[in-house]
């Protein structure tokens, strides 16, 4: 990074702020994210992930700067509050095809994975249970009317919540 050696003190002098900024700007963000994440994970490798929250966020400021939207997709370990993996969603696509890449290198056996309603799909549930051996919590909204109605009927029978009612089905949105 351009650190110079002082002949007087025989120590290296710290690089300037601009040198550090220029160096960081030259780095590939995905490679840096992978290296930092891997380093953090190496210090937590014996700690199993109990619960993982997966969500995507659009950085609105980024689109104002260069005209392109920036959507990041991340998995957050709820115990350590550490982002286990993060990737950028390519333009003209969404989080659904990126889920397998996001979770590929994580051992999720016995982990509860929460996702938003976008991921409430058969293939996502199959991937989590069969491939990753994880449990999942997927919300069901009225945009999936058949599944929503089936779950509402089950909730009324007490089959879903033996300890008591936790769901009061209201009028379905139009």
What's this, in brief?
By secondary structure, the protein is α/β, with parallel strands linked by helices. It has helices at 17-26, 29-43, 60-66, 99-103, 122-131, 145-157; strands at 4-5, 12-13, 51-59, 70-77, 82-89, 112-114, 135-137.
Biggest pleated sheet: 5 strands, mixed
Number of helices: 6
> Quick one: CATH class?
Alpha Beta
**What would the CATH topology be?**
Nucleotidyltransferase, domain 5
Helix content: 25-40%
Question: Rough shape?
Answer: elongated
- Quick check: average pLDDT? 83
Integer count of domains: 1
Cα distance, first to last residue?
A: 60 Å
Number of strands: 7
Order of helices and strands: EEHHEHEEHEHEH
Report strand order across the widest sheet. Answer: 5-4-3-6-7
Structural class: alpha/beta
Query: So, CATH architecture?
Result: 2-Layer Sandwich
Approximate strand percentage: 15-25%
Sequence stretches where pLDDT stays below 50 over 5 or more residues: none
What's the alpha carbon Rg, rounded to whole Å? Answer: 23 Å
Structure notes:
It is a single chain. The longest helix is centred in the N-terminal third of the chain and has 15 residues, at 29-43. The strands form 2 sheets. This protein has a 5-stranded mixed β-sheet. Strands 1-2 form a two-stranded antiparallel sheet. The protein is of the alpha/beta class and 174 residues long. β6 (112-114), α5 (122-131) and β7 (135-137) form a beta-alpha-beta unit. It contains 6 helices and 7 strands. The protein has one domain: Nucleotidyltransferase, domain 5 (2-Layer Sandwich), CATH 3.30.420.
